[in-house]
């Protein structure tokens, strides 16, 4: 038995016969093309994996951005309330200070 695989395009009895130069060149071109196509398939598979990884990163980033936005809004609201409390305390302090200054002067002027 021959070590070459069966080729239906070679007539019977010529299975082990040497191929002519033209057939050999065509076979080399086919082999080169098959090699290029295998490389392309490998690259497409890697690209698909990279795209999936990139999509996962994008999803994670969007989730992180949403969490950051919620946290920033909470901090903004807390700071607004803190600012309002400070303004209210300042207003109350000014009113009390004015009351301390105005009431005694009014009482003194009414006695005179």
Topology:
Blueprint: H1 21-111
**Could you tell me the mean pLDDT?**
88
Describe the global form.
Answer: rod-shaped
Q: Main β-sheet, in a few words? A: none
The number of distinct β-strands equals 0
* N to C succession of SSEs: H
Low-confidence stretches: none
Please work out how many helical segments DSSP would assign. Answer: 1
The level of helicity is over 70%
User: What oligomeric assembly is this protein in?
Assistant: single chain
Distance between the termini: 139 Å
Class computed from helices, strands and strand pairing: mainly alpha
Rounded to an integer in angstroms, the radius of gyration calculated over CA atoms is 44 Å
Beta-strand content: under 5%
GO biological process, one term: vesicle-mediated transport
Keywords: Coiled coil, Membrane, Transmembrane, Transmembrane helix
Transmembrane segments: 86-107
Pfam families: Synaptobrevin (PF00957)
Question: What report would you give on this structure?
Answer:
With 112 residues, the protein is an all-alpha fold. 81% of the residues lie in helices and 0% in strands. The protein is rod-shaped, with a radius of gyration of 44 Å. Keywords: Coiled coil, Membrane, Transmembrane, Transmembrane helix. This is V-SNARE coiled-coil homology domain-containing protein. InterPro entries: Synaptobrevin-like, Synaptobrevin/VAMP, V_SNARE_CC.
Keywords:
112 residues; mainly alpha; 1 helix; 0% strand
Task: Describe the structure concisely.
The chain is an all-alpha fold and 112 residues long. It is built from one helix and no strands.
